[in-house]
Automatic annotation (TrEMBL):
Gene giving rise to this polypeptide: rab11fip4a
Superkingdom as given in the UniProt entry: Eukaryota
Protein keywords: Coiled coil
Keyword Coiled coil: yes
Provenance organism: Sipha flava (yellow sugarcane aphid)
Protein name (record): Rab11 family-interacting protein 4A
């Protein structure tokens, strides 16, 4: 009986411990269930926020993709426009280069022609200068002869004046002119005649120089017909004055 009593007491103690453990386990289970419910609520909130955030990210991504596509298309359109403009400018430059090349070839041919023409004109100008030098030398000779004759005429005029004064002084004694005075008068008339001849030759030579100068000028100024027409309209005195 004592043994059974002890066993009953032990069983009672075990039952009491079991009840306490059951109560604690039940309380812990209730706490765990409450925590599970709380975690489930947090999980649902987290899932909801994640879904909202995911939707927002997807929406932002779609907007970003749309904007990138739009910018890419705009960039492509701008590049196409620039490419078309560059191709058009390149074509214009190519045509302009061809025109410049053609103009350059034309200018080269014109340069060669002008150089040949300048050489011909230089030859003609040199020939004209040689003729002018010869005519100038002849003209200087005529001028010197005219100057010498003028000096002789002046000397004879002075001698004639002296003779005239002597003649007037001796007019009462002499009724006929002195042979010396007559000779001086004849020489004076001869020199005057020679001087007139030289002056005519000088005028003819000067006119010849002017005519040759005009002719050479017309040959050298074929590029300026207006100047040739102006020379044609000048008189001899005008041409002499211009020369």
């Amino acid at each position: 009986v004592q043994v059974l009593q002890k066993q009953m007491n032990a069983l009672a103690d075990n039952q009491h411990l079991t009840d306490e453990r059951y109560a604690r386990t039940k309380e812990e289970n209730a706490a765990l269930q409450a925590r599970v419910h709380m975690l489930e609520e947090q999980l649902r909130d987290t899932e909801l926020r994640c879904e909202e955030r995911l939707a927002s990210e997807e929406r932002r991504h779609r907007e970003l993709v749309t904007r990138v596509d739009r910018e890419k298309q705009l960039h492509i359109d701008n590049c196409a426009i620039r490419l078309q403009s560059i191709e058009s400018a390149n074509e214009s430059l190519r045509l302009e280069a061809e025109k410049c090349k053609s103009a350059l070839d034309t200018m080269r041919h014109e340069k060669i022609s002008l150089e040949q023409r300048v050489n011909d004109l230089n030859v003609g100008a040199q020939s004209f200068k040689d003729e002018i030098r010869l005519l100038d030398a002849e003209l200087r000779t005529l001028k010197q002869r005219e100057k010498d004759n003028e000096e002789i005429i002046k000397g004879l005029t002075r001698e004639l004046e002296v003779s005239r004064l002597e003649k007037e002084a001796m007019v009462t004694e002499l009724h006929s002119p002195s042979p010396y005075v007559t000779e001086l008068t004849a020489q004076l008339e001869s020199l005057k005649h020679q001087n007139r001849s030289l002056k005519d030759s000088y005028d003819e030579l000067q006119a010849s120089i002017i005519a040759k100068g005009i002719e050479k000028g017309r040959m050298l100024l074929t590029e300026s017909p207006s100047l040739a027409s102006e020379l044609d309209g000048l008189t001899h005195d005008d041409v002499s004055e211009q020369c």
